Amino acid sequence: MSPKNLGLLWKIPALGKSMKKKILNLIKKKNNTKIVSLTAYSKNVSSIIDNYCDIVLVGDSLGSVLYNYKSTREVSLNSMIEHSKSVRMGVKKSLMVVDMPHNTYRNSKEALKNAKKIMFKTKCDAVKLEGGKKIYQIIKTLIKNKIPVMGHLGLLPQSDKTFKFKGKKKSERDKILNDAKLLENAGVFSIVLECVETSLAKLVTQNINVPTIGIGASKYCDGQILVFDDLIGLNQMNYRFVKKYANIRNEISKAVSNYSKEVKKNKFPNKKNSY
Q: Which of 70, 170, 211, 256 has its CA 20 to 30 A from that of 132?
């Protein structure tokens, strides 16, 4: 990446040295090293994945994963902040990003107020917003006020009414590519592409200078992100873009079954577990 491009992206002159270094190092991974990202909603999880991830995202997906909400639109700002405070305790090296929930960035004034609150209370490194042209000025306002922003294009869970992959229609392809260029111009340091058709994800990745992070958007993105509960097989839902690397649900079932048997047979607690 050329110094010119870094200069375009870094319109934030007064970031803390540590935060600025993390973000610049992430941008430099584009075309060099794949970026590894996962979601986390607690210290227990974040302290494990921090060893392997470049980005830890406190996603508003916690609404469906933890609270069984029908959509992420039900997630509150306070819920995001409380979970992020827990996650922060486990993150030592990764870039920590927090989703701004639905209806917290409807205009620049509201977005700035809520983003400042998230940054101050959670000590995160950046926030993520969904959308393109519609929130261009909002993103510019946040960045002008020294708040690093990650973009999000393709499927937008906070606003889309149907969950279908994007990029089949020419109008969708043109919009997503144009929005990606707009977000880059606004100063985002990376863009999540969710459920985007393979050739379009490749095209977007090749045409912007900031990293793309895919979820259901092919191997051609600069990095990948998955919901942690999906990766470990805790969630029973099956999505095409998810690969389950473990079946932790079975392991939990075995552990609880063994505990139940030992309690009923009066084997637990034994002398070793007693005072």
A: 70
Q: Please give the Cα distance from 197 to 186 (Å, whole number).
A: 24
Q: Is the separation of the CB atoms in 102 and 72 below 8 Å?
A: yes
Number of structural domains (the chain) is: 2
Encode the chain (275 residues) as per-residue pLDDT tens digits: 443 444 444 444 446 677 778 999 999 999 999 999 999 999 999 999 999 999 999 999 999 999 999 999 999 999 999 999 999 999 999 999 999 999 999 999 999 999 999 999 999 999 999 999 999 999 999 999 999 999 999 999 999 988 889 999 999 999 999 999 999 999 999 999 999 999 999 999 999 999 999 999 999 999 999 999 999 999 888 888 999 999 999 999 999 999 999 999 999 999 999 99
Both 152 and 225 in one domain: the answer is yes
Residues catalogued as catalytic? 194
Residues 255, 235 within the same domain: no
